[in-house]
Amino acid sequence: QVQLVESGGGLVRPGGSLKLSCTASGSIRSIGVMNWYRQAPGKERDLVALIHSSGGTDYADSVKGRFTVSRDNAKNTMYLQMTSLKPEDTAVYYCNAEISPAGDYRQYYYWGQGTQVTVSS
Fold first, then answer.
1. Residue 100 banded pLDDT, cuts 50, 70, 90
2. Strand pairing of 115-119 and 10-12?
3. How far apart are CA 84 and CA 16, in angstroms?
4. Residues near 14 by beta carbon (within 8 Å), at least 6 away in sequence
5. Measured CA angle at 115 (ends 47, 104), to 5 deg
6. Tens digit of pLDDT for each residue in 32-69?
7. Which residue from 71, 77, 91, 121 puts its CA 20 to 30 A from 112's CA?
């Protein structure tokens, strides 16, 4: 059974940094695009950053220049390095990935359980 698990969230002061990780586990044939989303209280879940298996990336305008997404394909892991954090970055951060399970050539989107990031003085 395929699972995504995030880690690395926490409380940080404005201007600080955090690094999130998302690891896919289980019987996996391949992983395509991996995404970071976030959801603040009372708001919709929004795409923050994505990274293709080739390494190509894209970012929401609100985080460009401050966040960097990367992945280690050998470890089935994606990272989100967040710098110059602002109170408005406070949200639950979720990873999402397009995965083909072992023995299945179809692709499915899986979600992690989320990790809380709070930016506050």
1. very high
2. parallel
3. 6
4. 85, 86, 87, 119, 120, 121
5. 65
6. 999 999 999 999 999 999 999 999 999 999 999 999 99
7. 121
